């Protein structure tokens, strides 16, 4: 196993992985509001790469026998002026995506990707690492808990009207 930084040749793997991840999350959505549009692959991948570039982040790719099997993307978040007025001003890391091909899950590769990203965040002077997890993604919630992450914020919603979304 080799974990290295993302290179341009990884674009197709990154795009396909983001589609697989979004399809998985969509399948867990009881409100069926998450879906993967025809242009998701291009637009969302560009957004991830743009955020990583603009926010001094990084993407690591896990390679096994010359084939990419997983990735993790993280960014550095600086506190906003408003945040400085109501909380301790700190630089935080945020994991924005983590994906591992299904046949490699449960093999400690995801933990290795997490450790690599946490090391990056430590070198960048981050105080905390944040991850947003879709509430219905039970596998991810258990995994992050196992890695020492705990719930800090909870976002709630209530459906009040359906108009054939």
List its salient traits.
165 residues; alpha+beta; Aminopeptidase; 5-stranded mixed sheet; globular
Task: Please give the structural blueprint.
Layout: E1 2-5, H1 11-28, H2 40-54, E2 58-64, E3 67-77, H3 81-86, E4 92-100, H4 109-123, E5 129-131, H5 138-146
Helix pairs in contact: 1-2
Annotation field: number of helices? 5
How much beta, percentage-wise?
Answer: 15-25%
Q: How helix-rich are the residues, as a percent range?
A: 25-40%
Please give the largest β-sheet: 5 strands, mixed
Number of domains: 1
Uncertain residue ranges? none
CATH homology superfamily? Gcn5-related N-acetyltransferase (GNAT)
Q: Spatial order of the strands in the main sheet?
A: 1-2-3-4-5
**CATH topology (fold) name:** Aminopeptidase
Q: Indicate the radius of gyration in whole angstroms.
A: 17 Å
Q: State the shape.
A: globular
CATH architecture annotation:
3-Layer(aba) Sandwich
């Amino acid at each position: 196993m080799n974990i290295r930084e993302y290179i341009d040749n990884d674009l197709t793997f990154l795009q396909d992985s983001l589609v697989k991840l979004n399809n998985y999350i969509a399948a867990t959505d009881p409100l069926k509001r998450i879906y993967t549009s025809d242009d998701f692959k291009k637009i969302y991948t560009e957004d991830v790469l743009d955020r990583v570039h603009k926010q001094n982040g990084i993407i690591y790719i896990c390679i096994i026998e010359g084939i990419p099997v997983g990735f993790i993307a993280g960014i550095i978040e600086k506190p906003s002026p408003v945040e400085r007025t109501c909380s301790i001003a700190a630089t935080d890391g945020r994991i924005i995506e983590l994906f591992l091909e299904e046949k490699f899950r449960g093999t400690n590769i995801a933990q290795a990707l997490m450790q690599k990203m946490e090391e990056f965040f430590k070198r960048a002077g981050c105080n905390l690492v944040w991850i947003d997890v879709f509430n219905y993604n039970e596998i991810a919630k258990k995994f992050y808990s196992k890695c020492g992450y705990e719930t800090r914020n909870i976002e709630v919603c209530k459906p009040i009207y359906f108009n054939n979304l």
